[in-house]
């Protein structure tokens, strides 16, 4: 089932119902047949967030290049859906920004789940941002020193504040929420969630170095830093393009959203050729209206992340020259 959410966002009337209808007509081709429960599985490369299990809802994939995120409880799920509806059709969002940095939204769909086999649940249908990567090395970095929208109820503010203070969010303007790194032999390094929560500044630097290292185990040779972080189309140039938009845009405030980094450990080489480096935004359950004000919370975290990554690139070994 593909359906529309009620307009939870106002967005100053930029998205008229007529505009939205015509957008849907142009951008939502008829959906492929609905996947059955046996087609669906939790994504192998998910590094953070709520995970699907026998008794819990979580994202699912079916290998078709789509990513199904269950609408979250309360008004949170509807809020995220309303964001996608509004963002997808917003005339003031540059198409290049929408296409390069956000998953494409294909509406919502009722899907059976293991947790609720008899009670199909609505899911956001998104592009799988890691589709096409054979051995994805992935990092989820939650941006912003503050992770709750200003309108949040007090107990939620207290819960988020404790997490923001207890992690590097307040200090650095971001925290690493999840990471997996595939070594050349295929071994996967994936620290526990709790370990990531306990990282201090030096620990964050270590993890960001480890993300672009080819040595197995805990070593950090940063052999892939030039290829993945630096160079044309690398993480840094993509983050800088994103930053340029955040220096201008006053439409949305992206509380608690994450930057998802991805590259193909099988395709990347220290020479900087290939690798399918991706920089994307995910998790819009707490986006607020920008009301004409810069998203300084996200922008500050983004600048801080850029500084960490550019320091790693400057200290890392040079990209070896290409063979003649
Ligand atoms: O539900 P919890 O307590 O596990 O917290 C979720 C977080 O897990 P954590 O415990 O920090 O590892 C979870 O954090 P990660 O994405 O795993 O870093 C999210 O922050 C989630 O918030 P939302 O999906 O953005 O609404 C968090 O959900 P809410 O706090 O928003 O309910
Ligand atoms: N469109 C997507 N394509 C591929 N992976 C995704 C996509 N969206 C999210 N993920 C994966 O799922 C994780 C959790 O997503 P998120 O939207 O943050 O869920 P939650 O709201 O439960 O925190 C991310 O860390 C990432 O690994």
TrEMBL record:
<dbReference type="GO" id="GO:0051765">
    <property type="term" value="F:inositol tetrakisphosphate kinase activity"/>
</dbReference>
<keyword id="KW-0067">ATP-binding</keyword>
<comment type="similarity">
    <text>Belongs to the inositol phosphokinase (IPK) family.</text>
</comment>
<keyword id="KW-0547">Nucleotide-binding</keyword>
<dbReference type="GO" id="GO:0005634">
    <property type="term" value="C:nucleus"/>
</dbReference>
<feature type="region of interest" description="Disordered">
    <location>
        <begin position="22"/>
        <end position="48"/>
    </location>
</feature>
<keyword id="KW-0418">Kinase</keyword>
<keyword id="KW-0808">Transferase</keyword>
<comment type="function">
    <text>Inositol phosphate kinase with a broad substrate specificity.</text>
</comment>
<dbReference type="GO" id="GO:0008440">
    <property type="term" value="F:inositol-1,4,5-trisphosphate 3-kinase activity"/>
</dbReference>
<dbReference type="InterPro" id="IPR038286">
    <property type="entry name" value="IPK_sf"/>
</dbReference>
<dbReference type="GO" id="GO:0005524">
    <property type="term" value="F:ATP binding"/>
</dbReference>
<dbReference type="GO" id="GO:0032958">
    <property type="term" value="P:inositol phosphate biosynthetic process"/>
</dbReference>
<protein>
    <recommendedName>
        <fullName>Inositol polyphosphate multikinase</fullName>
        <ecNumber>2.7.1.140</ecNumber>
        <ecNumber>2.7.1.151</ecNumber>
    </recommendedName>
</protein>
<dbReference type="InterPro" id="IPR005522">
    <property type="entry name" value="IPK"/>
</dbReference>
<dbReference type="Pfam" id="PF03770">
    <property type="entry name" value="IPK"/>
</dbReference>
<dbReference type="GO" id="GO:0005737">
    <property type="term" value="C:cytoplasm"/>
</dbReference>
């Amino acid at each position: 089932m593909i359906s529309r959410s009620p307009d939870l966002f106002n967005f100053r009337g930029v998205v008229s119902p007529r505009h939205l209808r015509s957008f849907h007509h142009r951008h939502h081709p008829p959906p492929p047949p609905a996947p059955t429960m046996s087609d669906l599985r939790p994504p192998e490369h998910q590094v953070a967030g709520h995970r699907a299990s026998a008794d819990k809802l979580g994202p699912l994939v079916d290998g078709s290049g789509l990513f199904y995120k269950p609408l979250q409880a309360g008004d949170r799920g509807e809020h995220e859906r309303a964001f996608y509806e509004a963002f997808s059709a917003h005339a003031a969002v540059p198409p290049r920004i929408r296409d390069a940095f956000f998953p494409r939204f294909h509406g919502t769909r009722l899907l059976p789940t293991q947790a609720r086999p008899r009670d199909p649940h609505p899911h956001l249908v998104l592009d799988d941002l890691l589709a096409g990567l054979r051995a994805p090395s992935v990092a989820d970095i939650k941006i912003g020193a503050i992770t709750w929208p200003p309108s949040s109820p007090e107990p939620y503010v207290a819960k988020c504040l404790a997490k923001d203070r207890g992690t590097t969010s307040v200090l650095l303007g971001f925290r690493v929420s999840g990471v997996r790194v595939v070594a050349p032999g295929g071994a996967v390094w994936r620290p526990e969630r709790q370990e990531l929560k306990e990282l201090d500044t030096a620990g964050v630097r270590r993890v960001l170095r480890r993300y672009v290292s080819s040595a197995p185990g805990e070593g950090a040779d940063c052999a892939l830093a030039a290829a993945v972080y630096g160079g044309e189309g690398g993480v840094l140039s993509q983050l800088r393009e994103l930053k340029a938009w955040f220096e201008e845009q006053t439409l949305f405030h992206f509380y608690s959203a994450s930057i998802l980094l991805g590259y193909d450990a099988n395709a990347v080489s220290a020479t900087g050729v290939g690798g399918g480096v991706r920089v994307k935004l995910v998790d819009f359950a707490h986006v607020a209206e920008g009301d004409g004000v810069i998203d300084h919370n996200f922008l500050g975290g983004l600048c801080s992340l850029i500084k960490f990554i550019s320091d790693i690139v400057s200290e890392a070994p040079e990209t070896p020259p290409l063979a003649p």
